[in-house]
Design a protein that fits this description.
The protein has 25 helices and 26 strands. By secondary structure, it is an alpha+beta fold. Helix 1 runs antiparallel to helix 2, helix 12 packs across helix 13 and helix 16 crosses helix 17. The structure holds 2-(butylsulfanyl)adenosine (IVH).
Length: 691
């Protein structure tokens, strides 16, 4: 057999090879997802995958529903179709205390005693299986001859929704089952289990959503449910959905006698079984397991809300049957809720390293599951508005993922009318700069380049290779400089002297000298690098390049309007708004002026030749009077000069233009007397833009 197609001269039947590839990929999938023990590298796996994809592209008739290539999602559906479950999906009776658990065992004993059964007498010791009660979304998977044909949500237990396309994207769900001699695969088989998201994956998912300005999910279960009910399975495919099997529904032709054997079969067929699942020889062992699981709860990677006890013997299960849609042979033992009520005393606003303002509820301290909780992130204004959280409200708090405290909801019936709505501040609580919310983002952000909350991050970015590229100025050094109070904004770097650096850790004469030289040598970066270095939101390296291609000098970008910026290809309204607000912020203009004074003069080679001899400014003489709003006079001068114009102090007949800011002096009068063209600030910028 050839697995790699190296046999020269021998043509490989695509049908055979594609089946071979499907099996290989399914096998390695199982090693990776089910056993957590991969046998081959990701690259080798990708190789197999690519080969199969190519083969299927050439021979579409070879694509099978269980091909791993079908996991990536399909075009969106209009709506989900109803799916009547071949056998009903029951729910579980609840227990809340250890005595409830013992009562359950007694009920079963009595039941057995009352009816003729293989266990006469009714005082049997009953064997159980205990499993965690996973807090996710229950699904029913229908396999025919070992191939997944339908995946459906529970719905009302009788009819669910057909979410097969989404189910297929879940890597932990086998698209076809592995048979082996001991565990033959029934012709029709329903697998019951829980779609979940692991807590660490959930955190990453929410962080990404927050970063992208999307609404965060309240908990892993909501995230799993939301992902499973996507009409566009390509979105589902991107979510970290996982699956644990815990039961079978319809099971045709099997010799299995116990639930424990069922779990073993599920495992053999390729499903994940929760590692806590175990047999319990009698009810007191279940009680012990309940305590153990409760104690371990916080450390588990998947959220659980209790423990499930199931009678192990399948014929006894049959005999016990069900009442009002709950089997008599199973019990959900809930854990005490990790929820409490408390009062919101205030809402703090924290500024993160990237400038995002995060409102944080300050609450009357309350014990939840043995931990004192007094603060909880409210994420952003949208979340506060959605939950209508006001200062003074009585709220339900829980520890989501059993770790992070979270405000679940307001108990509105307890409102007194004195509660205060919260509105995120317009200026940064740390530095006073403007706070801006860009379209499509949930976060409000401080745009101050010198904001102390962000300064370390900003300077690291400023000095980075893509930015000013200051060699030898790494994160550690920057942190030391900031912590020592030596730099408060990027421009302070240029005021550093050797005597400042020498007292710092691991800084000798030589390294101090090297660093100062590197700082000095980086004073004339290409314009795009300076633009990138400023750390304007949505202005990455490629956006910075676009701007430098369009504008000759930084001042031109500073003067640009949103409308004008969006005429540049690939510059969207958010980026344009971000640029304009950045240059409107007075504290940013101050830092820019400081940078200029320190001698930072970017070069823009593509403009340096052409601008001097052509355009509206070439050879013209300008006089500036009054105050310009958008830039310092010195800067306006430089912009005029960079375009080949000249500036003088007094108005004469040789003057071509007088630029008048607010409260212009006598120069304006003189210009009028002499009939010289005058421009207000707006007209001046317009002229700059066309030249
Ligand atoms: S067995 C007839 N086992 O609990 C028994 N259910 O109220 C069917 N669940 O909707 C369920 N973990 O989503 C079973 N190990 C487990 C479970 C479990 C979670 C959920 C399931 C179902 C609900 C039953």
């Amino acid at each position: 057999m050839s697995l790699n197609g190296q046999d020269v001269g021998q043509t490989i039947d695509p049908a055979i090879r594609s089946e071979e590839l499907r099996n290989l990929i399914a096998y390695h999938n199982r090693r990776y997802y089910q056993m957590d023990d991969p046998e081959i590298s990701d690259t080798a796996y990708d190789f197999l995958f690519t080969e199969l994809r190519h083969l299927e592209a050439s021979y579409p008739e070879l694509i099978t529903p269980d091909s791993p290539t079908q996991r990536v999602g399909a075009p969106p559906l209009e709506k989900f179709q109803p799916f009547p479950h071949p056998s009903p999906m029951l729910s579980l009776a609840n227990a809340f205390t250890e005595d409830d658990i013992r009562d359950f065992d007694e009920r079963i004993s009595r039941f057995i005693g009352r009816f003729p059964s293989p266990f006469p007498g009714g005082s049997e010791i009953i064997a159980y299986v205990i499993e965690p009660k996973l807090d996710g979304v229950a699904v029913n998977l229908l396999y025919e001859h070992g191939v997944l044909v339908t995946g459906a949500t529970r719905g009302d237990g009788a009819t669910g929704e057909d979410v097969t396309l989404n189910i297929r994207t879940v890597a932990a769900i086998p698209l076809s089952l592995v048979g082996n001699g001991a565990m033959p695969i029934p012709a029709r088989l329903e697998i019951r289990g829980e779609i979940v998201i692991a807590t660490p994956a959930f955190r990453v998912l929410n962080e990404r959503r927050l970063e992208a300005g999307e609404q965060v999910f309240a908990n892993p279960r909501n995230a799993a449910a939301g992902s499973l009910r996507q009409l566009d399975s390509r979105i589902t495919a991107k979510r970290p959905l996982d699956f644990f099997a815990y039961a079978v529904g319809l099971l045709e032709g099997t010799a299995m006698k116990s639930h424990w054997e069922v779990l073993a079969a599920l495992k053999a067929w390729g499903f994940k079984i929760h590692p806590f699942a175990r047999t319990a020889d009698q009810i007191e062992e279940c009680v012990k397991g309940y305590r153990e699981l409760y104690a371990a709860r916080e450390k588990l990677s998947y959220e659980i809300d209790g423990m499930v006890i199931k009678v192990n013997d399948l014929s006894l299960q049959d005999e016990l049957g069900a009442v009002s849609r709950s089997p008599r042979w199973a019990l959900a033992c809930k854990f005490p809720a990790h929820q409490e009520t408390t009062v919101i005393e205030g809402i703090d606003v924290q500024v993160g390293r990237t400038g995002a303002l995060t409102p944080v509820a300050v609450m009357t301290p309350v014990q939840i599951g043995g931990v004192t909780v007094s603060r909880a992130s409210l994420h952003n204004q949208d979340e506060i508005d959605r939950k209508d959280i006001r200062i003074g409200d009585t709220v339900v708090v829980q520890r989501a993922g059993d770790v992070i405290p979270e405000v679940v909801k307001v108990i509105t019936s307890l409102r007194k009318g004195t509660e205060l709505p919260f509105v995120i501040p317009q200026t940064c609580p740390v530095c006073g700069s403007a706070v801006v919310r860009l379209d499509g983002e949930a976060a409000h952000r401080c745009i101050g380049i010198a904001c102390p909350a962000q300064i370390k991050e900003h300077i690291v970015h400023f000095a980075s290779r893509g930015g000013m590229d200051i060699e030898g100025l790494g994160e550690k050094m920057i942190y030391q400089l900031v912590d020592a109070g030596l730099i408060k904004d990027p421009a302070d770097l240029y005021a550093l002297r050797a005597e400042h650096l020498l007292p710092l850790e691991r800084t000798g004469e030589k390294s101090a000298g090297n660093l100062l030289r590197a700082i000095d040598e980086a004073k004339n970066p290409p314009l795009e690098k300076l633009i990138f270095a400023l750390g304007i939101r949505h202005v990455g390296e490629s956006m910075a390049k676009l701007l430098a291609r369009r504008y000759a000098a930084l001042g031109d970008i500073m003067a640009a309007t949103i409308d004008e910026l969006t005429t540049i290809r690939d510059v969207g309204p958010e980026a344009a708004k971000s640029v304009v607000s950045f240059f409107q912020e007075p504290s940013n203009l101050q830092v820019l002026a400081k940078l200029k004074t320190a001698g930072i003069a970017p070069i823009n080679r593509q403009f340096s030749v052409a601008t001097e001899s052509s355009g509206a400014f070439a050879g013209k003489t300008f006089v500036l009077t009054g105050t310009l709003e958008r830039m310092a006079r010195q800067e306006a001068r430089e912009l005029i000069e960079s375009r080949g114009g000249k500036t003088t102090e007094s108005v004469t007949r040789k003057t071509d233009y007088v630029i008048a800011g607010t409260s212009p002096g006598s120069k304006l009068d003189k210009a009028k007397t002499l009939g010289i063209s005058t421009l207000d600030e707006e007209a001046f910028f317009k002229l700059m833009r066309v030249s």
